[in-house]
Amino acid sequence: MLFGDLDVADVSGLIAAAVTVVQIAIPLALPVVLLGILKEEKANATTASAVSWTVIGGFLHSSQWPSLLSADSASTKGVPRCIVLITSMKTIFAVLTWVAAIVTPLGLYESIVEDSNPKRGVSFHYVKDPSVFGLGTRPRADLPWSRVCGASNWVVYGSVDHPVECPNSFSNVTIFSNETGDYPIVHKLDSHVPQYVIDVFQSGLENMEDSVSSIFDIQARSYSWQTTRDNPDNPHPDAIVHDNGKPYPRYDFYLISSNLLANDYLAIEGLVVDMKNGGIGFRNHSVPPKSKYGSTWSEDLLFIEPESQCVDTNLTFDFNFTTFPSSNRDHIDSLVLTDRGGFANLNLTRPNATTTNAQSDPRLWDRAYEAAWINNVLSMVFMNVTDVRNISDPNRFGSFNYLDSHVGKQFPMMNKSHTFLPMKSPDVPVGIRRFGLSYLYGYYLDGLDFGERPLYKNHFNVGVDHFDLAASRCTGQSGHDNNNINDLPAACGLVYGIARRVDKKNSSLVFELGSSWTVPLYSCITAVKATIKRVTFKFNGTDNLSSLKVTEIADKVYPNETAKPLWGVERSDRKLEYARPLWGLISDNYKGNVSLHTLRQESLYLPAYEIGPHGIAFNQQYQNLPGIDFYARQLVNMFGVAKPDIVPDYSWPENLATLQKWLELSSKAETTSKILNLIWTDLASNSVVGTRGLHGARVQPSTAGRFDDAFTGPASNPPPVTFMRKQIRYHWEYAVPALVDLSFAAAILLATVIFGYLGRVTPRKIRRYLNKTSQGRILTTYIFGGKGDTDSQATAVVPHTLGRRSTKKWVQIFGKIPVTVADGESYFLSIEMGPQNSQAPLLAGSVRRRGSPDAS
Hints:
This protein is of the alpha+beta class. It is built from 16 helices and 32 strands. Strands 2, 11, 12, 13, 15, 16, 17, 18, 19, 20, 21, 22, 26 and 30 form a 14-stranded antiparallel β-sheet that branches. Strands 1-31-32 form a three-stranded antiparallel β-sheet. A three-stranded antiparallel β-sheet has the order 24-23-25, with helices on one face. Mean pLDDT is 79; it is low at 152-160, 234-239, 418-426, 612-620, 699-711, 787-804 and 836-856.
């Protein structure tokens, strides 16, 4: 290519530079050509007509040669300063103009900008996702909602071993109780969700943009069909199966892909995924018609996002790296728990994170801090660092009669044979490439009081069950609680950060035998909330989802309190272990309904869920209501209760890039919380999809097909779309030479106007001075012996015709007289009348020529 990688501005500048070179070179070259044409005789004498000398002089002195060669016309000696200043400005102005001509075009550039007039009523159409998420999202047939509460006759959940009616369902179950126990009498088990229930939790959409989803616009990315059948081993023989044994759908979870390293806003099948801060927005993706330069618009979307807080326990695990890892297992030596102030500087006053209004003041950090405090106190009691008054009474936890620790004190976690401890459970998630997430507080002590030579006597018999208090105080919920809008869906646990080298010799990604490492330990909590966010999209390129970019995700701003969304949570007498409540956006018509908890604010912390004794959620996974299931299940999966073949093992970063990222984030408690947000988001984005888009609401087809196959029609009020257009723009710093040049020009023009207005300069005066300084007139005046200006001399010669002769008359009478100019002596010129030309006019007898006889 001729200009390589140059842009339009660069090419314009090069063209301007070439033109400027020509503009400078040609005016310099033409005088050279002219002088080359002039013939010189002896003593460098040249003969030409008087008017020719006027033209030659004007041409030579109007070029840049006088300045370059310091000729007389460029002299500053003996010349008044004002004249020097004015005459010098010509050169300065010329140079500025040359520079401006070259530099000014360099500031030009083309830009794709938004049109100033957004278009309304633009029709949107669905676009498919060509990525693995599009390929991995299950096709869906007529997929009704299903809801299962309590325990069915084919599985037992915790203490609930019988089916329960779901709130507002068509089921009919009564419980008969006697001294031997509770017995269900099942008249009907119906998994269907009544339409009027759906209508209630979608009613709030009437006050929202068409793009906002409800809980019933959230579907499972993966699903299967469930059938319950009679079980002869059922302890309740009167129980019957759901839906008379007909199949009904259930929500499943399978990993499609991980986006942990994306650090961007992503548009994938059915979702907008915030991999910068965490959170997923529900949207069945649709776009406006393709345009040459693309388009942009903004929508309100329902988002569900995690909110995490971490507190430093001020305890670290320290070890030496002895052998290179094999089979995803680090070989470490001298594992110790180091007191960094978590024991020695313990606040002896027990914290209390109880809150009466968790929706407005969840006190997440306080909850994580209380759990960390309980974890540290029980660890101290286990290792006999301090005493305890009553280990079974949380309110009388520690008497703290002594505290046997100091900052820097180390407590062994391995026996002398380097055997991994704890011995009763898998090893503590500590290593040079490990990131530990554990729902069990105090897990690192399990087994250290066993064996022939235990590391610790554990005089107060502190066990794992005692550490459960830390988790329960942190989550603030129990399966025996009735559903309450102030119970949060929170998960708590210990986070073991990425190991960092103690010495600064090498990077923490350099695994060197004999090196020393330290692992921070944090107490963390993650809650989940629903909110409305304003999302800005840009579409350009091919007509599929790969060309849709999310450019901004921002909190929606409301003009006043009444404009904020009204959230509703299902109210019933069912306990969390029986049924997880529905939630959603509701209209003002349902405010005050006895079956609803309502709240008007920007966001809603989603309803709580039951957590079992080992951190497992008692979720009704045999149902198809992902809007009340998925967020809780992924909270549980995040803290490690997962099947390795389904959920990725986040405790082993897959590559050095992830390891480096988590190494940086886990160096502080404040940034460790971001890791939890991103893990939950990664799991959630693999879990569900949104089915509402601007191309219309989804219609359940009667035959198998993708959920985008049929729609009710386009949105009634789509957002305005701003189409992009090309515009020439300018970098103004390149205009500085031109602006200076224009300033000079403006000043000169202003002075011209002022002198003209005052009458100090007129065309008559200009013409007079041009004639006075005409080279030919000066020469003829000199030759014919007159003194004074040319007009007076000419008048003396031809009084009747030369008083105010025009140039034409002067040329006719004097201009054609040949004049010879040669080098003289002592810096003078030798000026003589040249040879007579047949065309030269006859002169009056009173005129004499130097070196010639008197004329008659």
